[in-house]
Amino acid sequence: MEEKDPDDKDCPHMSNDGDWLPLLRRDTELTLSLHPYCENCGLVRNVGPDRPRKLGYYVDKLSELENYLKNEDSKKGKNKLTEVHKRLIVKEMEEEKVFNDLYGVLASTQEEKFVEILKKYRPDLEECVIRYYLE
Questions:
Q1: pLDDT tens digits for 91-119?
Q2: 2 and 45 co-located in one domain
Q3: φ and ψ at 25, to 5 degrees?
Q4: In this structure, are 9 and 65 located in the same domain?
Q5: On the CB side of 72, how many CA atoms lie within 13 Å of its CA?
Q6: What is the pTM of this model?
Q7: Of 49, 77, 92, 111, whose CB is crowded by the most CB atoms within 10 A?
Q8: Do 129 and 90 touch, CB atoms closer than 8 A?
Q9: Among candidates 57, 65, 41, 55, which has minimal Cα distance to 131?
């Protein structure tokens, strides 16, 4: 079987049961945990606290943020996230590899990309508000 390049974007990751690898927990305590990996390209899937999430998680967070902006009393609803903004944001997230490939990516990387995309379409939103809804 020919081994693929880990940077190959078209790898149809076939999950293996995994190998026992170190798992970094809080307070830098190292333990061993079973980490699944791709049989084709060898990328290891993160199972630690910074585990990546599927695209649907971020779409849900976008909806929570939309509800907050819609109900925000101080702006009387003028600050809401429009359907056009939402569609453009979701479309761009669908095109980003970090939201579609759970191998070789961290949740913190996904969160940075989520904030970047939101700020692209809504530069008036404060980063701390966006990050609050990611927790």
A1: 999 999 999 888 888 899 999 999 999 99
A2: yes
A3: -115, 180
A4: no
A5: 15
A6: 0.77
A7: 111
A8: no
A9: 65
